[in-house]
Amino acid sequence: MTRGIARAGQPAALIDDPDGPIRLASELVAAASPNPPGDERAAAAVLVAALRELGIEDVRDVGPSPLRRNVVARVPGRIGGRSLILNGHIDTKPPGELQAWGTPPWEPTVRDGRLHGLGAADMKGAVAAMTFAAAEVARAELAGDLVLMFTADEEEGSASGARWLAEQGMIPAADAAIIGEPSGLTRDWDAIRLVSRGVCLFRVDVEGTSMHSSLSDHLESVNASVEMARLVTRFADEGGSMLRHRAHPLAVGGPTLNVALVAKGGSGQGVVPGSASFVSDVRALPGMERDEIIRDVEAFLARAAEAQPGLRASVEVEAWLPPCEIDPAHPVVGALAEASAEVLGVAPPFAVFPGGTDAPHFQLASGVPTVPSCGPGLLTAAHRPNESIALQSIIDATAIYAGAAKRFLAD
């Protein structure tokens, strides 16, 4: 399938089986795990079998319910040196409109040097690469432990995945973790992403006057949908400047406000809408806190009410994932940069991961310094039809993870 694409300096596991990571990634794509509804059993079973076939014996399949499964494996070191976690999630977004796919989403297809299928980039390619990298680490008999944590439910908040593992005390007190989220935006491997932006999802409720629509020219009324529309426009035009934050060297553009991701209003024809609402999110930078963001939104709503006398609006938090970051001077970052330079010819620059990741569950909840994103594929290929990943990127990921682990876990 992929003979001859491995580069110089590839680990022995790839020399023995250069097609292995591509084959495993294809098997994982075929093991459907869309979330919602959420069922990682098939993908977990593929990984358990692959790990054992590669000679890794300490493998567990754990989860809060029969459907929601996480795979945890350990490659023990010789003398109790540093420990490293490699993490990837095994759920995917749903496929969306099936007619928009050129090939069926769960039918892995290799074409033009790419693996096509749901989850190929986000992030079953990375999980396959980590699995084969672990086999290389096992051969090397390094000083420290390597732990693989392939998690459920990342796409819907991680309540059955990394967050559950953290709450159960099942994330080990490792010295570092690397998450294989796709780190490319414009090209593969265009950055090692050291910051995981937070997510503050909030709902703005607008109150109006519910009444028979035929009376709106006879009685004073407030159409909640109209007031919401005016407020949404104001948010889009002015809202980005309302957020207080400290400057960050890797995030020159600051935080991101996404307005009216979902908007609802009215109960039906013949009724002046008495209520309307819209959901927005802030992609937060390190140092930003949930309560501070909401205070900024409340202050904005108060100013808007002065300009819109009919506006009565309030805000409620629907979800919060805090931002986090790893120190660029941390040894695991250096190990990744060196391994990337060896495989790619140059070390990618440091940058911010645009979205949220499972990094807070490892770093903030469990005390494990975590690289939020160093993985194969393009983030822009994820969460859309016809998802795909370059075969070479999966092969390179295998070598990068193995090389970084060898450096970090050496005597």
Structure overview:
This protein has 411 residues and is an alpha+beta fold. It folds into two domains: 12-196 and 323-409, 3-Layer(aba) Sandwich (Aminopeptidase); 198-321, 2-Layer Sandwich (Alpha-Beta Plaits), CATH 3.30.70.360. Helices cover 31% and strands 23% of the residues. It contains ten helices and 18 strands. α2 (20-30) packs antiparallel against α3 (41-53), α2 crosses α4 (120-140) and α4 (120-140) packs across α10 (391-409). The longest helix is centred in the N-terminal third of the chain and has 21 residues, at 120-140. The radius of gyration is 24 Å and the shape is elongated. Residues 1-6 have low confidence and may be disordered.
Provide the succession of SSEs: HHHEEEEEHEHEEEEHEEEHEEHEHEEH
The rounded distance between the terminal residues' Cα atoms is: 37 Å
CATH superfamily of the largest domain: Zn peptidases
List low-confidence stretches. Answer: 1-6
Please, what is the average pLDDT?
A: 93
Total strands? 18
Known CATH architecture of the largest domain? 3-Layer(aba) Sandwich
- Beta-strand residue percentage: 15-25%
Query: What characteristic shape results from the CA principal axes?
Result: elongated
Give me the side-by-side strand order of the main sheet: 1-2-6-3-7-17
How helical, in percent, are the residues? 25-40%
Number of H/I helices? 10
Oligomer: single chain
Sheet having the most strands:
6 strands, mixed
Total domains, how many? 2
Quote the CATH topology of the largest domain.
Answer: Aminopeptidase
CA gyration radius, whole angstroms: 24 Å
CATH class membership of the largest domain:
Alpha Beta
Computed structural class: alpha+beta
